[in-house]
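Inputs:
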Amino acid sequence: MSTLGNSTNIFWHDCAVGKVERQKLLNQQGCVVWITGLSGSGKSTLACSVGRELHSRGKLSYVLDGDNLRHGLNKNLGFKPEERTENIRRVGEVAKLFADAGLICIASLISPYRKDRDACRSMVPDASFIEVFMNMPLEVCELRDPKGLYKLARAGKIKGFTGIDDPYEPPLNCEIEIRQKDGICPAPCEMAGQVISYLDEKGYLHAH
Amino acid sequence: MSTLGNSTNIFWHDCAVGKVERQKLLNQQGCVVWITGLSGSGKSTLACSVGRELHSRGKLSYVLDGDNLRHGLNKNLGFKPEERTENIRRVGEVAKLFADAGLICIASLISPYRKDRDACRSMVPDASFIEVFMNMPLEVCELRDPKGLYKLARAGKIKGFTGIDDPYEPPLNCEIEIRQKDGICPAPCEMAGQVISYLDEKGYLHAH
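Outputs:
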């Protein structure tokens, strides 16, 4: 590798490729877009739409889906309170790594407790944690019931289901709130537009 | 977001941005470069050199360092056998996600047991796990002793230290082996060159 031969004067122990260099390469800024809300509120749909729109703009993003990670990184965790907390902590830690790698990391988890979300916020550098609250009425989510889970929860076959017999604590100071307008849910592209606009305004879609 | 208005005919539930699209964006192929070897064998140095060289070629990589992750994702794990295994499993799962995101993920861990490394290999698609064995003599590593750990292990102040009172199981079929030539350790740029050459030959430095 002749190109490597020129590098012999570099101090090799100083690992000079850091977040700033990666962000320049990608022409974007790493951050965490944390989508929280009830089951059926549209988190995965939004995550997917945001990822698609970012890609069409040449930006690199990656979706961390709570359900998917339970088949891999978090497969040794159940649904006891302390296991839910650990589940969210691990996703937060991984999201932090992706943001540090320069990606726009889109995490999509119910993450019902404020303290767990706040713990994830505190892991990443200031302002690079963007909390998106899917503020959809429970009735709407329950009508959709895409996974049939509300039915099971109402029948008592799932215990501790968020919104039914376990609380959802809405964010107090989220960066973005997605809600119905005149009783109509926004289309995925509209919801994604709200997130993309925010990222654009805050400068995440360019390197600094 | 007027540009989003054009996307309303897309099937939003089909999350079309996948590994292939990300790889095209990055013009590279996601994979895991897993560096294994004794403490002091030069894993971090190699990881850093490879990352630097990849960056100079416009390729996006990210280093997962075993020690660093013990301050974050793995901070609730100690050094009992089952905790070591879980430590490596989590790093493997995260490396898998990074490779899926399209990055060249460089994992740097002692990872002394063959079964733990093989478990990580089995997580990622065939051939995209590239095991790099830092085959340095124990005497060399112990002389370097960059963290002073061998001294503590010899004095009995650390128990179960790899190479002293806990075994290191060398890979049987690693993709790359780094070793001394005529009793001299290769320079970091030479070691990195060996890895970069491999990635280049196998096509990882371009999208397919």
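Remarks. Chain A has one domain: 18-201. The longest strand of chain A covers residues 31-37.
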